Amino acid sequence: MGMWTVYLWAAAVIGMKFRKKRAITEFLKSGAKADFELWSSLKEGKIEVVNWPLCKVLLVDDANFPCWLVLVPQQNGLRELTDLSKADSDLLWGEILRACRAVQELCHPKKLNVATLGNVCKQLHIHITARNCEDPAWPGPCYGAVEPKPLDKEHLQLLVSQLDRLL
Fold this sequence. Notes:
167 residues; alpha+beta; HIT family, subunit A; five-stranded antiparallel β-sheet; 37% helix; disordered N terminus; HIT-like; HIT-like_sf
């Protein structure tokens, strides 16, 4: 199977947005699987923004915080960062930094929270949350601190559009 055949197959099956040849190479080297299943508890209240070579990037639908992303490595059975191979671990950290930079550029937060909790949902996922002094949980943790407040439709569309451009 040729390189472009693999690329077309991956793009069709997973819906990935490959913008550069490097992304194709990273995907082929990563352990991302076409049969990946996102747990329903991670789907709830989130909007899929993009698929990267390793992670599915989700936007949390919560107006309490300027921007809250969740990155989910697209491999079944992961619970801890240590479950990743060295290559996928390196790829994950690159994707985390990429998401952090996008959120910083978009929101200019006072603080950027990056966390892997997994106490409620065991599927490995990484929270990247823009925090400001005005958010209702400041300065405490935002995870479960307040009832989510859905973004209005126009703000949601704008945020997804801006994230799509930055990510």
